[in-house]
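re: ur question from the group chat, yeah i did fold both. here u go
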Amino acid sequence: MEKCKQCFEKCMTVTDTYMKASTWKDLALIKLCVFSVGVLLGICIPKKHKTVYSIIGALVIGVTLTPIMMKFVPMLIDEFEDFE
């Protein structure tokens, strides 16, 4: 249980560091990504249009999540280098 707590604390530290280093553009991408996830999960559309909207939502998630993760993952890896 102690390892889980340490891991969580490290993740929160990295998240705080990422947020301090982020610009408004990064935060806009995060919001757009979260919005797209909500659309994919919550939309009630006719079956004939579901595939089109699902593809659009998945593309938006991919396009917005990639730059976010490209900045966040290296920070996370650096924080966990000495984690046992």
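okk and heres the other one u asked abt
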Amino acid sequence: MKKLIIISAILIFGFTANAETSSKYYHSVGGYFYTNLTPHGTWIEIGNGIVAWRPTIMHRRWAPYTLGRWVWTDYGWYWDSYEAFGHIVFHYGRWFYDDFYGWIWIPDYDWAPAWVEWRYDDDYIGWAPLHPYAVFSINFGIRITYEYYVPYTHWHFVTYKHFYNPKVYNYYVPEKHKYRIYGRTKYRNDYRYYNGRIRNEGVDFDLVRKRSGQKIEKRDLITSNDPREFENIKRRNDERIRTFIADRNEIERDREALRDVKFERNDRRPNLEIEKVELAEVKRNRTNDRNEIRERQDSGRDRNIQLEDNKRMKNDSERKEIKRNKEMREVEEQKRISEQERSRTNDSKNLEKRKESNIDKRVNQQRNEVKRNEQVDKRNFEQKRNETNIRQMDRNTNERKVETNRNQTSQRNNNTERNKENRSEHIR
């Protein structure tokens, strides 16, 4: 009988503890988020009563804002996700990559067409998930509470002509080329408050349209603030863009779902600096849990030491990353200088070759000119000699004719003299 009483007490205590835990986390996130995200991932406690959602990754290269397309709307660039959980995690909250847990999503209630930051130049446009240290203010826009380095591997880069493609995920730049593109692109972050909603201007629309050479039309968003209505309309197979913009009461209404939610607890805390996170729900939860935090101060000293160690390791990792990036830039710069030197050397060699070729060409031209002149002189000489010979032959011919005539004349005169003598003798 005593055993039965003890077992019953344990079960009652366990149920009460689970109910208290569910109630506690319910106030920080809301039943609707739990109901819709639990089938696709795991809820984990990351400290100070704050929970995060970790998706069930199907492959190791999965990252937020990968499977979907960009659409231009009244609220700027809208990420139309092709994933079942996309209507929540890509329009609410922030993403953070932890070395132990991988990608985790920190919930928040502010809706935006996409929570990303941008980089661009004349050839490429890229985006990366906005980290939890980024807080939106109506008057200021995005405010950063803690300086955080987003690794270039977390960025997706595409050319402008593929940016608006419905299958943009087929055209991402390979990871080995991201560093070079990241280094030459400019950072862009432009969030505004428009018509009662947050607007993500991102990279200028006219620049994207001009660079892509495509006709990009503004699409209308069909919004719904009723979770059940949205679940029905998102199943319709048409081309209209549908989005869920939460109503706080509707999100928090699904209390019954929290009874089946299991929270993963691990001594390994993420590298996230929780005290630097100022998202609306995190701040509210932090305020409500002051007493609990005070009670945990003693036990939290070791965790703070661990956080300091993690921070130190993170700083060392960041310094190593910066050093490695610097070395890579130096290597790239050295390669570029070497390429320029080789190019200049090749240009110099080619110039020398061209000079030598031009000299040889001029020498050959001069030689050919001399040969042509010699041939012309020779032809002229031959022509003159032939003309001289012809004149000499004509002169000789004339002289022979004159001599012949002279001889004939002399002969006739002699004959005439002899005839006269003969006649004279005959007369005598």
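fwiw on the second one: Residues 98 and 121 are 29 Å apart (CA to CA). The two ends are 213 Å apart (CA to CA). idk if thats what u expected
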